[in-house]
Amino acid sequence: MLRLRGPTPELALEMYCIIIHVESPAKQLPWLDFSDPSGFLRSGPLEQPSTSALIWKHMKHSAVLLINCPDRKGLVARVSTLLYEHGANILHADQHQDHDLGLFFMRVEFASNLGDGEASFDLERFRLAFASLAASLDMQWQLISNQARPRVALFCSQYLHCMADLLYRWHTGELACEIPIIISNHTNVKPLAGFYGIPFAHIPVNSETREEAERQQLQLLSQHRIDLIVLARYMQILSPGFVAHYPASVINVHHSFLPAFTGARPYHAAHARGVKLIGATSHYVTEVLDDGPIIEQDVARISHRDQVEDLVARGRDLERVVLARAVRWHLDRRILCYGNKTVVFD
User: Fold this and answer.
1) Do residue 87 and residue 140 come from a single domain?
2) pLDDT at 156
3) What tens digit of pLDDT does each residue of 260-311 get?
4) Which end of the chain is more exposed for a tag (fewer CB within 10 A), N or C?
């Protein structure tokens, strides 16, 4: 039996969802005191090596090839033949055609180290060879090695449900990335950052200081070599100049009432209207507010018996799951953006 003590009941509840999943006997953590304002005490299983190291061991010698080009016959054959000629072993392959636009999309994950006794795959030699093929077929393409983990910055404001969920998934190895920094315009998340041993930066934002705040944020992101920004309920609008530094690399989540129920109390408005479905949407951030390419959506059915509090609780559950899926798919290089849409490969 684990007992929790926290600075607020809400924060204790946020941490409860993490502690109940600890994969060690409860006797190793008989008491956890989260009331220390300087940060959470870290002990027991949270000091043990994460399972992410084991997952990464098996995937770090692979690479992913993403392709977007005009559709024509023989594309799959030419790509797979070139991989074979360079000694690659295809692990997963998926493709999609947009018949209206005449476009072809493909994702290929392949082993770049075939094991003992076999020569390692020369990724740079393949890159040069594929560049020639891609030019002849008018391809837009990306070739990404899994040798290095993507580096992710987490942003949030006062709501911690998405942040707590992402950190737990990261700690257990579900999200194969590094999280070198957490940034917030409030201090609510500081104890949670301390619990996981992640540096925290508090950068207040208001209409007068927004430009300076974004300058500080960009400086931190550059310093930590960030590849992806996740807005885990960060309740500030990013400027077009900020977004331009990270094209298709800022992921947001919000309720799916937009644009029908805008404003600060969308669930109250939805309840008053008597909606029967609520949902959440995760998308890439663009210069147009909440109009970026959608990565994932999910819904839950509700009834007249559900009160505003029920809608809020179910909405937060949806936001957790939808954001986690979007982040995981991005980290796995499963997403291709074209126009204002995405292809999410299996």
Assistant:
1) yes
2) 98
3) 777 778 878 888 888 888 999 999 999 998 889 999 999 999 898 989 898 8
4) N
Q: Which domain holds residue 93?
A: 61-145
Which pLDDT tens digit goes with each residue over 97-130?
999 999 999 999 999 765 555 556 788 999 999 9
- Angle 123-136/75-85 helices, nearest 10 degrees? 160
Q: Which residues are catalytic?
A: 290
Residue 262 confidence (pLDDT): 72
CATH number, domain at 133?
3.30.70.260
Preceding omega of 240 cis (within 30 degrees of 0): no
Provide φ and ψ at 206, rounded to 5°.
-145, 180
In the chain, what are the helix, strand and coil shares in percent, each to the nearest 5?
Answer: 35, 25, 40
Cβ neighbours of 15 (radius 10 Å)? 22
Residues 117 and 204 in one domain: no
Are 335 and 192 members of one domain?
yes
In this prediction, residue 16 has a pLDDT band, given cuts at 50, 70 and 90, of: very low
- Answer yes or no: is 16 within a domain: yes
pLDDT of residue 271: 82
Beta-sheet strands, E only, within 9-139: 31-33, 62-70, 89-98, 103-111
Q: Report whether 176 contacts 194 (CB < 8 A).
A: no
**In 3D, which of 226, 225, 251, 220 has the Cα closest to residue 238?**
251
**Two tokens, residue 221:** 């992101």
- In one-letter notation, the amino acid at residue 126 is F
Residue 158 — left, alpha, or beta (φ > 0 → left; ψ -120 to 50 → alpha)? alpha
- Burial per residue of 227-253, b for 16 or more beta-carbon CB atoms within 10 angstroms, e otherwise: bbbbbbbbebebeeebbebbebbbbbb
Q: What SS3 class is residue 107?
A: strand
* pLDDT above 70 coverage of the chain, percent: 79
Instruction: Give the integer Cα–Cα distance in Å for 216 and 223.
Output: 10
The mean pLDDT value of the chain amounts to 84
Residue with tokens 């994932």: 296
Q: Provide φ and ψ at 55, rounded to 5°.
A: -60, -45
Q: Per-residue pLDDT for 168 more than 60?
A: yes
